[in-house]
Amino acid sequence: MKSAAVVNYAPEKGSVEIREIEKPTIGDNDILLEVANVGVCGSDLHQWTADHSWPVNYPVVLGHEFGGFIAETGKNVTKWKEGDRVVSETAAIIDMNSPMTKIGLYNLDPSRKGFGYGVNGAMTRYVRVPERCLHGVPDQISFEHACLTEPCCVAYSAVVENARLKPGDRVVVLGPGTIGILCAAMARLCGAEVAIVGLESDKHRLEIAKQYGCEVFIGDATEWAMRRDGLGADCIIDAAGASITMKIAMALVRPNGIISKVGWGPQPLGFSLDPIIQKNVRLQGSFSHNWPIWERVIALMASGALDVSPIIGGVWSIHDWHTAFEKMHKGEVVKSVLKPY
């Protein structure tokens, strides 16, 4: 049985197309997941435009934000059964003997490979998933929302686990993409005052950020950052990925504050990091997520405390992937969601 898939087949720009692929076969500890919905991530766009900074195993089916129904289980799988509603983590391959894996931080295992770049992802009808990656989805969460658990976990990791915000903190988020807006939403759930900064071209996305109770700024949030006592914001979340945003973050953060960097960018910095030293600032990278973060995010979504509906700009068929990618790439929508059939 073959199904249509969105395949990134080469490192050159624009090397993405629909191909027919065989239904995957699964191992004893795997499940076969029938995809209900899959979110389009900025990393999918970067592989499409060939400006990514990570290795890709070409050809590969894109898509790592996904959920659906269990269609088949391996013989060693006992917790799950056919028909169960699930979402999947992204760490498709990990070294179980890695020191990082042994302490629960398998997301930081150097040999880790993820869906959509290391192994085939979910922009198709069926995907093979290790049992350990699965989380149950309560009935009250639609799959259009559940497929965005993964970017919500990225935001939770950056804001809650790594920045460790406190109620009353003042937070500036740089970059109103999916991760930036979700970071802002998470900061609001932590009780922080939040400003989010974008460009003139980000006006539509900034309007969506307002729905999460954020103040929004085009270009410059210096006045807001300095408003309390003239020293700067407690935390800067760099969700943009461009080099210049790190320089902005260093200017806006208060002494003894924190910069949580979650945005990727391959460009060299080209400026001094001395302000981090002078201000005694903690620069914290934030990558991926692990099992307890997923459980907490699903609970937040199920309770209604975290609503992802404002960021969803539409749902498109797999065959209309190009439209969905273009709308995100041009900033017309924050998040595009695909449906395999």
Overview of the molecule:
With 341 residues, the chain is an alpha/beta fold. The protein folds into 2 domains: 2-148 and 308-339, Medium-chain alcohol dehydrogenases, catalytic domain (Quinone Oxidoreductase, Chain A, domain 1); 154-285, Rossmann fold. It has 11 helices and 18 strands. It has helices spanning 42-49, 99-102, 143-146, 149-162, 178-189, 203-210, 222-225, 243-252, 274-278, 291-303, 321-329; strands at 2-8, 16-22, 30-39, 60-61, 65-73, 85-88, 91-93, 113-114, 126-130, 134-136, 170-174, 193-198, 215-218, 233-238, 253-261, 282-285, 312-317, 335-339. Strand 11, helix 5 (178-189) and strand 12 (193-198) form a beta-alpha-beta unit. The longest helix is centred in the middle third of the chain and has 14 residues, at 149-162. The chain is globular and about 65 Å long. The chain starts with a strand and ends with a strand.
CATH top level assignment of the largest domain = Alpha Beta
Enter the CATH topology name of the largest domain: Quinone Oxidoreductase, Chain A, domain 1
What gross morphology would you assign? globular
Architecture per CATH nomenclature, i.e. the level-2 architecture of the largest domain: Alpha-Beta Complex
Determine the fraction of residues in helical runs and give it as a percent range.
Answer: 25-40%
Largest sheet: 7 strands, mixed
Distance between the termini: 14 Å
Run of helices and strands: EEEHEEEEHEEEHHEHEHEHEHEHEHEHE
- Count of the domains: 2
| Helix/strand/pairing category | alpha/beta
Which residue ranges are poorly predicted, with pLDDT under 50 across at least 5 consecutive positions? Answer: none
**Superfamily at the CATH H level of the largest domain?**
Medium-chain alcohol dehydrogenases, catalytic domain
User: What is the alpha-carbon Rg in Å?
Assistant: 20 Å
